[in-house]
Amino acid sequence: MHTPAGPVLSDTFVISKPLKPALALDCPDSLLWYWEKAGGISQYQLYSYVSGAMRPIRQTADTAAFLTKSLFPSPYFAVAPLLAGGKTGVRSPTRRADFQNAGCYIRNFLATLRGDKAELKLELGAPFLVREVAFEKRVNSQYAPLAVLNQFGETVLGEDLNLQDGYNLYRARISLVDGRTLYADENLLVYLGSDRFLLFPNPVRQNEELLVLSKIPKGARFRLYDSLGRTVAEEDLIAELQGISLTNLAAGIYFYEIQRNGERKQTGKVAVH
Fold first, then answer.
1. Secondary structure letter of residue 86 according to DSSP
2. How many other C-beta atoms lie within 10 A of the C-beta of residue 70?
3. Whole-structure pTM value
4. In terms of Cα–Cα distance, which of 226, 269, 222 is closest to 245?
5. Section 166-185 average pLDDT
6. Whether the Cβ atoms of residue 251 and residue 272 lie closer than 8 Å to each other
7. Which residues 6+ apart lie within 8 Å of 153 measured at CB?
């Protein structure tokens, strides 16, 4: 500032844009925070809540930081750029880990039926330290790989073009660089061809409903009969998912047939217990 007596200098001060840290991973033993790179900055100061206040805990040249929960148990985190001359830029807003809705590597896994194929979508908390991602399908009581990927981002997509009539069970596998393997929750899809029917539960308990699932029920008729050929239940199928009453039916093995417009389409057995 200029005055009649000459210029007057203020104390030095810093002008910088606050960073916006976000939580990528919230694992049982650690947190991974990240933020955008600030122009002209090569070092950052990290802060956590220690002894009643936000205090400096570490400096880093990266734009991401793993914090081990045993060393830094507080969920609070902030970061600031370190400027030339050793000055610290404006500290970011303080973030709280348990308010960020972050998962541990796997945020979400979803299998969706689209026509005659299954679309698979895996959302990662972050691809850091992930070596490989695989989509797997259960075949003959064990899982087999559908696709194995070594290059991916936070969203990983896959598909299955060879659906089986009935149940199709999927999972995603995550392999980390330290040798650990993680699995997403299983996803179940039920698929039926245009002239197929799925009966469940089978075996079915006495006096419970037997459910018949069909893609196109129109014109189909269900008949259940005993070992002597006597009809014990019979209904026209009018809904994609329809319940068949088995009230007062004795325990045992029964047989069914489904006809469409007088033509037999499917036969099988139903166990009642």
1. G
2. 8
3. 0.67
4. 222
5. 94
6. yes
7. 124, 127
| The domain made up of 22-99 is a member of CATH 2.40.440.10 | no
Is the CATH number of domain 197-272 2.60.40.10?
Answer: yes
List C-alpha distances in Å: 48 to 55, 56, 80, 82, 192. Answer: 6, 7, 12, 16, 54
| Best CA proximity match to 154, nearest among 132, 180, 122 | 122
Average pLDDT (117-143) is: 93
Average pLDDT of the chain is 92
C-beta separation of 266 from 197 below 8 A: yes
Do 197-272 and 22-99 fall under one CATH topology?
Answer: yes
DSSP category for residue 150: S
Amino acid 190: pLDDT: 87
Q: What is the largest CA-CA distance in the chain?
A: 118
Residues ≥6 apart with Cβ < 8 Å to 57 = 46, 47, 48, 50, 72
CA-wise closest residue to 90 among 14, 35, 36, 21: 14
Residue for token pair 């006096």 = 207
Q: What is the pLDDT of residue 15?
A: 64
Residue 258 to residue 221: CA distance in whole angstroms: 6
Band of residue 53 on the pLDDT scale cut at 50, 70, 90:
very high
Tokens for 53? 């206040």
Amino acid at 183: Y
pLDDT of the residue at 196: 85
The alpha carbon torsion through 73, 89, 87, 74 (nearest 10 deg) reads -10
The fold for domain 106-191 equals Immunoglobulin-like (2.60.40)
Q: Which residues contact 30 (CB under 8 A, 6 or more apart)?
A: 66, 67, 68, 69
Domain ranges in the chain are 22-99, 106-191, 197-272
The pLDDT score that the predictor gives to residue 14 is 56
